[in-house]
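User: Hello, can you help with two protein structures?

Assistant: Certainly.
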Amino acid sequence: MALLQYLGTGRRKRAVARVFLRPGTGKMTVNGKPLDEYFTTYTSRSLVRQPMAATETADKFDVLVNATGGGVIGQAGAVRLGIARALIEFNLELRGKLKGAGFLTRDAREHERGKYGLKGARARFQFSKR
């Protein structure tokens, strides 16, 4: 018997999240830890739960996430996009609701690399005339 699951990939800044939705009771696991243990701030936890709440599917699926790179908020944003994409794979009719809420938009603001000879990506050293 094949395992029934829906896959979605989300990215934000330097973070990448692979999301697996499996029929279940609503348990969320990120990198082997429960959601509340992995994302310690209320903001990041609520960001991750938004697509499931908008489509009223929070208690229908277990969510397994592999998140790498970036920081906490970047990973939370990547997980949100991944969950939204996996929900569309489950049911295409949810697309309108998710798109209207803005959960399918990939945040294009990417991390900018630091430039050589400077303090960072844009900061310069103070100019001295004499």
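That covers the first. Now for the second protein you mentioned:
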Amino acid sequence: MHPTIERMTEIVASGDDSKIVEILAEDVRFLPPTYWKTWHGRAPVAAVLGHVGQVFSDFRYRRIMGEGKDWALEFQCRIGDRDAVGVDLITLDDAGLIAEFEVVMRPHSSVGALREEMNKRVMTDARVLEFRDAMR
């Protein structure tokens, strides 16, 4: 497994989302499952991912597939009282940092619950509001 992917699984397992910044490329792009916009940049993406870590519970990776720069990490979690499954699609840059991070999830009702919880958090977080121009 690529060291960055291994480190990501360690960070997720630790619950310390402040460490995610160390494996993100400066110009990382994050494509969330909740809307058709993309977050750009290390600091904005780290701030958003920090909230995701607080919204998901019982999170675990079920399978990790990939090689080289392209990886798919299948996960399951809970969002409130709803179960969800999804896949983190990750592309690494030449330095081995996460350059693109796309999340796909199901079922639709769980994605809706995620969107609702994330909106409650990010709309009141000064860090994220500062980065609103990073979403395009």
